[in-house]
Specification:
Keywords: Signal. This protein is mainly β and about 180 residues long. The chain has one domain. The chain is built from 3 helices and 10 strands. Strands 1, 2, 3, 4, 5, 6, 7, 8, 9 and 10 form a 10-stranded antiparallel β-sheet that branches. A hairpin with a 5-residue loop joins β6 and β7. The longest helix has 14 residues. The protein is globular, with a radius of gyration of 18 Å.
Length: about 180
Amino acid sequence: MKVTASAVSAFTLFHLALANFDLYRGTDVTAVPDDNPEPALDVWQVFDGEPDCDDASSAQTWDDSDDVSGDKFGVVYEPRPADPSDPGAATRVEMNFHDTDPVYHFTIYKDRNYDMIGLDGNTYGNCVPFPGDDYQCNYPLPLGDRVLSGARFFRCTTDLTAQQINEVNGKKRSVKIAVKF
């Protein structure tokens, strides 16, 4: 059997299309019916594509942070504040999703073509600024509502999927619920 260059190219494109994730920045707010609403949490989420509200509620949230070194999970975005209309303004985005084997800790730099550089210095993929999608979802709680919203910043092409990232730490995310008596 002869394999043509176009067949190899098609397979490569198909493979890359299956192995990518989109990086979204948003807010997670728990609103309770009183005069003191809970503060909004700035969060990041990863998806395999454009999410619906079921996807948004089931995906892990990662803190927006100033430091994700070592065992500090989350995402650092520079410069601050992050502008969803211009993700190409990012000079550095550091993502720490898991600090032990498998290590999912990558940094992308604008001056390095947004290549995904791992802690070991190897390149694990490439990200491109990819605005244009957002979501806002309301989830009723016993004493108020949870509002989760976000906007896409990057599409990262790599062998790592959003499902792998979201499942690696289990469901460590917690939802704040304020109970007032």
